[in-house]
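Field: sequence (string)
Field: structure_tokens (string)

Example rows 1 and 2, in order.
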Amino acid sequence: MASTYPCGGLKRRRFLGVTAAVAAQAGLPSLVVSAQEPRAAAGKPAVDEKWGIPGPYPGRVVEVRKPDMIRNGVKDREAIGAAVGRGMKELTGADDAVGAWRSFFEPGDVVGIKMNPVGNPLANSSSELMLEVIEGLKAAGVRTKDVVAFERYRDEFVGARMHEALPEGVAWAGLGVEYNNHQTDLKGVDDLKNPNLDHVTGYDPDEFVVMELVGKGEDPRDDRTRRSHLGLLVTRRVNKIVLLPVLKDHGSAGVTGALKNMSHGLVNNVCRTHSSPDANVCNQFIPQVVAHPIIRKKCVLQIMDGVRGVYQGGPGGSRLEWTWENNALLFATDPVAMDHVLWRAIDAKRKEKGLPPVGACGRLGLDPLKTEGFDFRQPQHIALAARLGLGVFDFEPPKGGGASIDHRIINIA
């Protein structure tokens, strides 16, 4: 299967820089973000501070395993729904699934569901999972008209046929239209004839992250080449987001889970992070984008689709033989902890298949299949994100004290 992404297979606001102390601690170059406080959505107040990443359950990752969520390539929505209910209860400690959903959401919330269709058909967020999330939101009192499922590119959402699975009254959107090599355009989707397409699309001219990195072939004199703007849907339409990343590897980031689903799925101008084999900077870009205050406050819940896992070639260049029926869903408010669990799972499967760990792979490292597209993969973005306070990285309590990952595995029949 050919890779969808060439880059993946291979003045009215104040601005503020991340402090030198934080940048030095994380080992990252300087960053500038817009200093605007997260705006209200549809009359709702800004998200309460308790929801800011890593959220109310730092370090906690609940993995629910159910053997019949997928069999012989066919997914079972009832089984996926049972796993969602159990996972939400275990994550929150609520007495039942409805109570768990109500601990995150309430009537009046406007909620985005961030899908991940880029690896379609082998490594995309399941429509069955999306539908169960919608049911959970409705149970919490969120109105159907206040739910919007979305992805960075409209054409990928449509290509995975996710829009066809949505119930009546639920809108969907792409922040932009389609993938292209020149990603600085702020224009959104112009299709007013489609009543189900949410038209709060495009990118916010006032909310962006600056990183002194210009993509291959771009003009460094153009300031837009250094900016990644947040989607208008993220900044102005919704006040909370549920994200459905997928358990898979990635040729440049090493693995691509909760963190990369935000950093590369909620902003534009992302191809510059891996635009050529020798200029891979996912390690720096991913934590810095996720640290944007709007993203931190609005991304309140992560449910990782591990029904099918991808251990090689992900997301767009995978083959069926590089996937496995994993039959698991993972739940967290902490994307760092979730992604470290993901990293371990991918490396364990690669070891089983006789492949080196992702952190050792690259054109200048280990490349037994002769498929590596970058000098080295960079899963260390997960540890760097922890240093920016975005979550818990360590599986064992660190020396001198500190939090560690609480990975709970729940097996249900």
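Row 2 begins here:
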Amino acid sequence: MAKELKNLTKRSEDYSKWYNELVVKADLAEQAAVRGCMTIKPYGYSIWEKIQEELDRRFKATGVVNAYFPLLIPKSFFGKEAAHVEGFAKECAVVTHYRLKVDEQSGQIVVDPAAKLDEEYIIRPTSETIIWNTFRNWIHSYRDLPIVVNQWCNVMRWEMRTRIFLRTSEFLWQEGHTAHATGEEADARARQMLKVYGDFVEGFMAIPVVRGVKSETERFAGALNTYTIEAMMQDGKALQSGTSHFLGQNFGKAFDVQFLDKDNKPQYAWGSSFGVSTRLMGALIMTHGDDNGLVLPPKLAPIQVAIVPIFKSKDDLDKIEARLQPVIEGLRTKGISVKLDNDDKKRPGFKFADYELKGIPVRLAIGSRDLEGNTIEVMRRDTLEKMTMSLDGIVDRIEALLEDIQRGCFTKAKAFRDAHVYECNSYSEFKERIGDGGFYLCPWDGTAETEAKIKEETQATIRCIPYAYSQENLGDDMVSGKPAKYRALIARAY
């Protein structure tokens, strides 16, 4: 394992290669037999479960309830909302037949031409269409509103260029869908869910984000407004880490979802949707990882403390375990996840390197000499600092250390992000510097033409109109020279 660590490409040498190697070597995921798809391994999935569990708790605290909707969507549903079908048409995987058979001449398995479907089905790239078709059966009166449902599921988007977690043909996510009596309620829900995402990613994943609203060009297909959180990776690129969408009445009208209001008049329902995906796993790796492997914020780590006893005999191990038992029980009582690694088939050095690679926040090591001195070796993964501590009071000190590591992960990431946010009013300067990465706050005239020119000439996109930065005294657009309407956040992105 130590040799494998040495073979991990350094971030400064090739950031993309470092990422791809780390995903595999840290046992998170691997390429699947299906083009563009991934197999999420148990350790990687346990991190996703932590994300899912905490987000689900936060969703339900706002009144969200979980449901499940079909994987297959009738193709005709996509034609009912023009912008939606245009946005997803190139990524749709289509089911055309329902049966295979053995060819009598070749003996090969073939599609049975007699089993062609009367109507083809789309494997869901997102579920607005089938959910709004369902809402039509659920909504008749204003008393039926609001509806706020979420589903945890997989989706399929037939991507041409894929990378594990960041962009795969199939991925896991949650998608929330809501219906309301008024546009104000629907828009408020979309904004509320953006706050949930931002608070979660910053407070739980220790990743600082910029919150804002997307340009019209970058909106979700079929939305009137898309709200986003944008995170900066260590190579200076942006990663869209969560979005919520104000859908207006577009889907209500497309699927004839009407209700009688308080005056007994028919109205179309207003909608919103919101979602995050296993892309958050990529954000986690690229925000906190280092040249030694993963660095997991404690709140997200499936194993927060790994304990490695160092022993020569079973008698040594028994004595060490007896002394550690109250420590382990004390940590677990505080809700801290602990692994006691007494596997005698692996050497301590192997275990140390493995836990370092996998980003375990705190590693404890204790041998017979430590036992005699009533001490234990403590290493924190974020700084790789080693300390010797007394076993007396160790539980409280480990609890405090984990809290310090959580804060430290966020502080470090925020300091990096803040140091790479630049105000820029010169297009020539922007074109010279954008290749080095970073977030650029630039005056924008609000036109799609200017936005398209920036993207074509620099491969950078308007990530959002950020809330945290002033929208006053904007001056002129750096590209067109026209009066600016916004101060936009522009970056190259994953």
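free_text_note (row 2): The two ends are 30 Å apart (CA to CA).
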